[in-house]
Amino acid sequence: MENLNRRVELDWLRVIAFTILIFYHTAMLYIPNWGFHYKSAYSSVWLEYLMLLISPWRMLLIWFISGVALRYIFDKQGAGNTVLFRTPLLLLPLLFGIWVVVPVQLFAEMQQNAGLTFGYVDFYKHFIELDSPLFSQYQRGIWPHVDVNHLWYLRALWCFTVLLAVLHIVLTSKLHVMFLHLSALRWSTYALSILGGASLLWAQLALAGDSQREFQGFVFLLAGYLLAKRQHFWAWLTCHSKMLIWIFTFNAMIILLLYHFYWLQDSLTPFIVWCGSIILVLQRVCAVLLVLALAARYLTRSHPLLTRLNKAVFPIYLWHQSVIIALALWLSRYQLGGLLESLVVIIGTLLFSGLLFWLVPKLGSFAVVMGYRANSLTSNKFIWGLGCLLLLPLILRII
């Protein structure tokens, strides 16, 4: 986030939330009931219970932080300039990722599920051929078999940035001035909260897969945008952290019990689905608020390393899941056992992340392709406009 004097705790949370992804996606290798691109030979159902404590809200926290950041960026740079400059910053790493970083995940998936017998070099020669018959059963993606995988966040963030930019223009226009007094009324906050909760519940019950997670992500992004500069919201958080802890703990116990006695036993009824969905939505909101409240209390001090860590977040996010899967695939031949294998995967991914932290800032202008926003990058609108034009094919595919 650009202004560390704004809310330092959100910068810390951003680093922490993306770091959690390394551990979360490593754990996905070892749980039998949740889909993933590659699975280890070792599995543990009990690990799923631990994952349930963070799975409902981990990405929603990132979306909320992104919404807060966008509010400050819009106010500082303007909505139009923000879209102009952030389009290459988001879509260049996405384009690089889907052609260079992500393919190893499909390679591992096809080795495990489709009996792929040749090596990665031969696989990649087929991969760059969009009409290759090798991928007849893998036709999902931006282009045939060329999918975003874990980089769905970058694609959705670009789309939502454009939508939010339009909304920002409307909300700050002269036509809206006559309605600004409504934002000072307490009932408007309550009404928006009820509307947001209802939309989350609707998405939980009516949507599935990418549609559900992206819709819920946009709700939290919008919430972060709307609440970014509402001081009474941040003050309320610091006063109600104990209440949020109790609600979080109670909801977590119910979710674990429902998962154990109904979901794993495949005995869900419409009533249980409704009750579980309400609890899950409440937990998502409560968990994000709780984490924000705790951060506001304990993560208020900045550090010289924080700026560098925030800039390294996207390059590490870009590579981490492919590194995890590649390490797991390579280690599978050694039969190390679940504990040792997972430790090697985590340590290896953290070491690779440290390498990116050191190397990417030294790449100059090419660093933007890796998702690194260097201060030395040009601010020339013509250059960025040309970059947007070159990315037009990808933009059209995303839309």
Q: What attributes characterize this protein structure?
A:
mainly alpha; 399 residues
The portion of residues forming beta strands comes to under 5%
Mean pLDDT: 87
Order of helices and strands: HHHHHHHHHHHHHHHH
Number of strands: 0
DSSP helix fraction: 55-70%
Report the uncertain regions: 1-5, 181-187
Oligomer: single chain
Helix-strand makeup class: mainly alpha
Overall 3D form: globular
Taken together, the total number of domains comes to: 1
Radius of gyration, in angstroms, nearest whole number: 22 Å
The biggest sheet, with number of strands, parallel, antiparallel or mixed sense and barrel status, is:
none
3D architecture notes:
It is a single chain. By secondary structure, this protein is mainly α. The chain has one domain. Helix content is 69%, strand content 0%. The chain has 16 helices and no strands. It has helices spanning 8-27, 46-51, 58-77, 79-101, 103-113, 120-127, 152-171, 186-206, 209-227, 231-239, 241-263, 270-298, 304-331, 338-359, 381-390, 392-398. The two termini are 27 Å apart. Mean pLDDT is 87; it is low at 1-5 and 181-187.
Q: Summed up, what is this model?
A:
This protein is an all-alpha fold and 399 residues long. 69% of the residues lie in helices and 0% in strands.
List the helices and strands and how they pair.
Blueprint lengths: L7 H20 L18 H6 L6 H20 L1 H23 L1 H11 L6 H8 L24 H20 L14 H21 L2 H19 L3 H9 L1 H23 L6 H29 L5 H28 L6 H22 L21 H10 L1 H7 L1
Helix pairs in contact: 1-3, 1-12, 1-13, 1-14, 3-4, 3-7, 3-9, 4-7, 4-13, 4-15, 5-13, 7-9, 8-9, 8-12, 10-12, 11-12, 13-14
